[in-house]
Every structure is written in structure tokens, then in C-alpha cells.
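Dear colleague,

Following up on yesterday's call, I've attached the two folding results inline so they're easy to grep. Please treat them as preliminary; we haven't cross-checked anything against experimental data yet. The first protein's sequence and C-alpha cells come first.
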Amino acid sequence: MRTSLVLLSARLLDPVTGHLLPETALAVAGGRIAALGDDREIRALADSSTTVVDLKGAVVTPGLTDGHLHPVSGAELTHGLDLSGCADLASVREALAREVRTLEPGAWLFGWGLDPNAFGDRPVESAALAPVLDGVPTLLQLFDAHSMLASPRALELAGVDGPRTFDQAAEVVCDDSGRPTGLLLEDAACELVERAAPQPTHAERRDRLAAALRAMAAAGLTGGHAMDANGESLALYTELDAVGALPLRLRVAPWCQPGTDAEGLRALIDRQGTGGALWRTAGVKLFMDGTIDNGTAWLEHPDCHGESTHAFWPDPAAYTHIIGELHRAGVPTATHAIGDAAVRHVLDSVEKAQAGDRSGVRHRIEHIESVPDDTLRRFAELGVIASMQPTHCCDFTRADHTDNWSRRLGEERASRAWRCRDLRDSGASVVLGSDWPIAPFPPLGVMAGARHRRPSRDLAQPPHGPEQALTALEALQGMTVGPAFAAGEEHEAGRLVVGHRADLTVLADNPLTVAATELPDLPVLLTALDGRPTHRDTSL
């Protein structure tokens, strides 16, 4: 056996039982866990080419996997001005004014992370930011990445001067006179203005992606379920993979949008399984609705503004047909469904697809922000995986329901926010993720949020729905065995077992005993992918 990595003096954590294994050392060969044992016997397996690391009692877990993220678009979107810390209009205007002063004449201003709660009771429109943006072409991504705010100059350069019609539930929001307010809802509308803005070069995109992935590895991630293959994504993954610069194992799900015809569907099916050494295309991502904050979710009853009444697919039956075709082709699907009507329709569609064909294809629903009681049990009955992002609840809603999301839904539905506990107790497999760049990607923060459900910037605030909190072990499972099961890889990933992939995360202490509020600050000492260190703290 030719070992590439040996870890000694370790505490090896089993994410299934929550117990520490009796062994204290681990050896890697051929990218797999080759042996577990005591320090003496495992050290004997090393030779002069082996990387030997004395962990001095640190805790090894299976590599942490983000169940839902957008690496390429995130690396691009987060390159501009970070507005995520702005809690009100005054702070937004101040941040924008500072940025404007640094721009060359005619240059575009890009921002991201804008929270609609900052607008208070005012409409989300560019007029609220005047005169700061007068004459400055500006695109501000709202925190949900389903909407943008464009300045008058940006709209002018893009030739957007009135309402448009789309093949999906997208909108150029206009006032009573038909003039755009600057708010663009969903991708099709946002792209109208994005196309007019200057684009980064291929090299800039590659370097930004590489930097983002390195930061993810340093935060403890060894893998991610990438929920898009847009733009140059696959070419960038291929390029980084070819030169050994891909520090995460990525499972990529390209989008299937309304209007996809038989030829387009066949192309998505044929693309399955393609990829490289550390990434592959696996599954298809679809959207059943938008977001509650924008009024584009699909609810069984309208929100307080009379919005969120329609599906993203103009003809929901067409979505159901697509799910059936993909299921019969053995292709797993991941559907964005936030509102209760959207979640119910996805479950109905999967049930119809499975009629007479329970082939074991593992379908998923992403987000599931508010669902009624009668929906919970159907996840387990149909084998549908619940993919949840608990930090969205922590950071974008409030326990007293004074936030935009809660006000739109009303007290009853807002009290059913992110039902991680109820879904798990009903038998569903729950996978956790960040949805980066919507929320920060550090996995310890995601696990902490699932446990404490408090705003990450002010942990003294009360939790939103504490009865829906997960235990420390359940949160760890949501980023280890959960993603492995969702990917159909439970036989080779998610546990510290001989023969499993040597994707490893090493922490300074046991994440099951560290307090939830302290977990995000727990040092990540080492991450390894196929036994190759992708991050190593200077203390080791």
C-alpha cells in the first residue's frame, strides 16, 4: 500500500452515531481511506513520500459538503460592493455614495446583498436611492439573487423603457404610467440590463472562481452541489480541474427553464455523467416559483399585497411532464420551491412520475420556506429530499415577524418558517446548504444557524422558530451523510470508513460539543480532497 496522507493523534468522528471512533489515526491511499488504527500501526504505513500530519487531538469529520450553492455566479456577483450589512436606507445610500466617489466617469457600479428590509415601508425602487445614483449606471443585486435594482442610467443604456413580456414569471416592474421603477424580477428581466453592462474576461472569471473555491476549502468545505451550469461554468470547472486547482468536489445540475422543448430536454439527459476528475454533471435544476420577498413565490393564498399567486412555469402541467420524462430517464431533479403551492405541485409531479416506477431516482426540493402540516409526511413517502438553507431564516427574517418576508405571509404562515425539525421528524432526509452567494458559505455557520436560528450578526436577538432547530448531530449529518445520500453516493462518501473517499475536514474541537453560537469561530485546521490537502493551518 502506497499511502499519500497519514493523520495521527486524531479524534475520528462518526456522523451517524455521533461517537468518536476507537481508532486514533487514518491512512489514505489512492484517494480513499485505506486504513484506520492506532498511531503506531498507521505511522508504519507511511514512507518518504507520505504527508504525515500530527493532529494533536483535533477532530476529523467526513468532508463537509454544501448541499446548495452557486460557485461561478457567486464569485462574479460578490465581486462588487457588499451591501449585506446595510440595515436601512441611510446606510445603503452612504455605502453607494462612497463607492460612486471611487468610480471613473461612465463606469458601472455593481452591488450585491441588498436587503429589501432596508427600504422599510417604501417600495423597492431606484427613486429611493436618488440622487446618489443620478447619472451612474448601477445594478444592485438583491439578497435573494432573484431580483435586481437598476438605476435610471442603467435602464437607459439597456433600452428598457417600459414593461416586457417573458416566457417565465419575470417582470420589469413599472409605475402607473408604465415607466420602469428600476426593480427587475427574476432572471429574464435582470438579463435585459445585465447584457448592457461590461462583462469580466474569461481570465477574470476563472481567477475569481478559483479564489472563492480556495476560501471555501479554508472554511472546511470539500464538496458542493452546484445548482446551475450557467455561462462559462463548465469550462471554468474543466480548466481548474485540469491543472489541479479545483479544491472542491462539485456535483453540477444545469437548469431546465420553461419553454424547454424535446430537443433541449434530450440534451440535458445526454449531458448527465459528463465532467472531470472532481466535477460531474448530475441532475437537473428547475424552478417552480420565485421568492416570497419579491412577491413571486407560488402560494396557496396570496400574500398581504395580493401577490405570489402564480407558478414560475406559465403552464405547471408542462413542468409535471418534464419531471416525468427526467424520472423515466433516471435523472434526479432539484426544484426550487419556496411557497406552499409550489412545494405541493412538485410533490404531486414526483408522485405522478413514480406511478408504476419507483426506480429509486432521488428527487429534491430546494428551500421549502413555509409549508402546511399535510405536506410534511409526503417527503418521506415519496423519497423526496428536503434541501434547506437555515441561515436564510436566521439572517433575513425576524422572530417578531416584522420583516418583509413575515409581513407578506402573515402570522400563521410565518410561524411555519423553515420547518427543518418537522421535516426530519416526519422521516424526510434533510440536506443543509448556504445557497451562496445568498448567504455566507462557511459550513460551520450553516450548521450553527440550523441549531440556534438567530441572526448571525446579532446572536443576542431571539431565535425565529426555535422549535424547528436541529441538534448538533443532525446539523452535521445535514452536511455529511445527507448530501452523500442525496447524490446516491452513500456507499463511498459521508463517513470515515475504509474504502470511502478521503474527503476530510479537520476541526480544532468536536462540533457536537461546541456551543452553536461559538461554532462559526471553531478553527478549521485542515481540509483534504481525495487525501490531498486543500487547506492546512499553520499550526499543523
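Below is the second protein, in the same order (sequence, then structure):
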Amino acid sequence: MQRLAHELRTLRRAAGSPSYRTMAEAGGFSATTLSQAAAGVRLPSLAVVQGYARACGADPREWEPCWRAAEAEAAKTPVREAGQKRAPYRGLARFEPGDHELFFGRDRAVEELKRLVRDHRFTVVSGASGSGKSSLLRAGLIPYLREEMGKRGRPAILRVLTPGPRPATTYGHLLAPADGRPESWVVVDQFEEVFTLCQDREERSRFIDQLLAAREPESRRRVLVVVRADFYARCAEHRGMADALPDAGLLVGPMTADELREAVVGPARAVGLLVERELTARIVEEVLDQPGGLPTLSHALLETWRRRKGRMLTLGAYEAAGGVRGAVAASAEEVYGQLSATQARTARHLLLRLIEPGQGTPDTRRPLPRDELDEWADPGVPSVTEQLARARLLTVDEEGVQLAHEALITCWPRLHGWIEEDRERLRQRRSLAEAARTWTEHDRDPGALYRGTRLTRAEELFPDCERNGALNAAERGFLLAALEGREAEHRAAARTARRSRILITALSAVLAVALIAGVAAWQ
């Protein structure tokens, strides 16, 4: 599925990257359907693939063999037993709006969040990493917002976004006030990215100003911001944000014992399964009062479900999966052990590129945009990405790829060791990526290249940059240009030195002759 999706995205780029709305008119399917076909989450139908090809100006008939091959390969991979319902647990992935019927244990928090968004135009939700903020937002609140929009009987817009490195530039046109626009809700998930990924203070401030405009009396917009608790204090760096924080905030804490039982038993019950009392008791004992334990709990339950006996999820299956503390590492090591030596190197480069090293704060995940992923010169990246995504360690969509959850950073010792070993290199590569982007945006201006000690340090950290698998095409081109620039400067300096020596020799000869002539004239 990932290979087919990659081929569809390549076809779209070759056609000039038309918008999905434009493609929908020519392809005969909705923009959402076409977008999902290129996301690689599930196998699209043959008709959709041919419609996608037609929208990109290709011959639909030529894509039938590609689809048949993908269908045959997907058929060889047992996803679930015949007649079996989908997994009741999400593993490391967050709950989405479509998982609403499987979302249990957060009724109290959902009701409080509903009250806040009804009563306030600007709301902030915070909590520890792994406390279930994104799931609360997507599977708890968003279905309610959609229901409310339907009840009002008038146009309304719901936007869910993550900031990324340039939030004001990326979303400014959507957040700018305009006459005639319908009422809207803007939900900003992973707001901490304005501090971890956005390095431009002015860009950050503009984005926050755009969000805070919702507090104006004439605004037709409501804003909900979701931020990790360890970045909550940094929100106060912006004066307007500091003023807004005390008015409408929700702190997502650990689940109570009853809520944990409901989170364990509820999803299983929804798909007709049972959970041993001993298993529920063990989980409550291990996870109670652990603010960031929900992703590892969900993953352990998913692995327990895979090892179930009939309709019963048992304590024995849970222990075989490694429990809350060991299931993530066990799953990660299992898929890593299936990779070849070359694929393992690629996996290390890929996973480290998905990490944003903390500076006085815990390490966070970093989304890898689709264009950056596609320009990576390593041909093994698509295959490795597919294997890690199939194991639910990564999430892949049309926008790009990212870690399924930050819990993977702390729960997988191998990845944690890689990060500690390469921490300085990760920071330098982040700076290198920004410098390469600036250089490209300024038409490869030589003045934007590394020089002096910065170039020397980059050369030490990324040796043999022309074949270094940790670098993408833009970073590799930037370093090669910088090295070529340094060589050109050295050659120019050598030529200048030679000319200077020749000139000095000639001047010395002239002076000697003049001196001799002067002495002779004096005599």
C-alpha cells in the first residue's frame, strides 16, 4: 500500500502538484477520497486509483497492473481473522474522530471541555505527554463540535492543525479576518511545536496573535489550543497569551481507577470481547497515578488482543506481550530484528530524523514532511517506512511521517541510546536543515553558505557528505556547495599569494637596481 501510495504521489508531482479539489473535478471522486488514496493507510479501490491517474493526465489503464500487484501483496498479509472486527485498541497511535465509539474513560474531561468551548472563545488544554490530550480532543471533542455545527443549520468550518516550523506563514490566510466568512472552530494540536520547530520568534508571535484575535468581540472564531504541560510556562512568554491562560484552561491529569477500568474494558466490550478481572486489576495497579502511561497501556492492550484466546483477553497474554513497561520495546525490537543490516542503518537514520532534541526540556517527535521524505536519496526509505508503520511505530499520511507517540523515545532503549549517542549531531543537523532551506529560498546565494568553524564542525559531524545516508538531497547539496566554495576561496587565496610573491620579487629587483644606480650616481 505504501509503495502504491508513493507512486501516486510521484505521479501527482509530475503533473505539477494540482490541488485535490482540482483533481476531484477531473477524477470523478471527492478530494478526500483521492487524498486518502495517496496516504497509504488502506488500499484504495481500482476505480479510485484510475480516477487519480486520470486527474493527473495519465492513462488509467496503465495503473491496473500496479493496483493488482498491491492487492495481491496486501492479501498475503493477515491483518485480522475472517469476520473479525477491527482492533479495539489504538496502540501508540492517538484516537481519531472515527474511533469515537471505542473511546472510554474520559467522560468527565469531555464534559468539562465541552463547557469550556461553549463559554469561551479561546481555550487551552494542557497535560503531560502521554496523558491522552490528542485523543480527548479528536475522539471526544471533535465529534461533539461536528454535531453542534449540524444542529445550527448554518455554514460553519472546523479546522484541526499542528503548527509546524512556519505556522503564521502556513495558516495566516486561514486565520486572517474576512467579511462573509462563516463561524469557525480552530483546534491547534501539539501547540508546543511553536517552541520546538518554529525557531523564528517573530513568526511565533504573529501566529499567537492570529489565534488570540478570536477573543475580540466581533470575531466569529473559537480557538482551542492543546499544549504539553512542560511547555505551558513558555506560553507566558507572549503577553497576550499570558493574559488568556487563567480564563479558560483544562489540565488533563491521570485517570482514576474507575476511568482506567472503563478504558480497558469498554473498547473490548464494544467489539464483543471480554477482559479477565485479573488483567484489569493488574493494569490498574501498574498505570494508576502515572500521568503519561496511556500510550504504553494502549499498546500493551493491543498486543494482548493479538494474543487473545477466543473472546477473552487474559493476564497470560498480557504478560507474554511484555506488559505496560515492556510491550513497546518488545514490538520495536521485533520489527527491528527483521530488518537487514542495510535496512537497519536506514531505520536508524529515519528514526533519528523524527526526533527534535530538547534544550532543557524532554526530547520530542518531529514530523517529517512528505517532500523531505521523498527527496531522500536512500532507496530503502519507502520499504523501511512501510515496515515500521505496519508495526504501528510510525504514522504515515499525505502530509508526511512521524513517530506514533513520544512514548517510543523513552520506552525503547535502543532508540533512546541512539539519541544520546547522536545528540550533538541531531542538533547540528537541525541547524543544517534550516541553513539549507534558507540557502535554497535565496536562490542558492553563496553568502548563505557555511564558512569557517561552522563548516569545519559540519564536516566533522557529517563526513563524506556526498554519500552520507543521514543527509537528504538539500542538506547534501548545501554542504557540497559550501565545501566547493571553501576550495574556491583557497585556490583564489593561493593565486593571490603567488601573484604577491611575484610582485614582491619584481619590486625587490627594481629596488635593487634603483639602489645600485643611485649608489653609482652618488659616486
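For the second protein, one point worth flagging: The first helix runs from residue 2 to 14.

Best wishes,
A.L.
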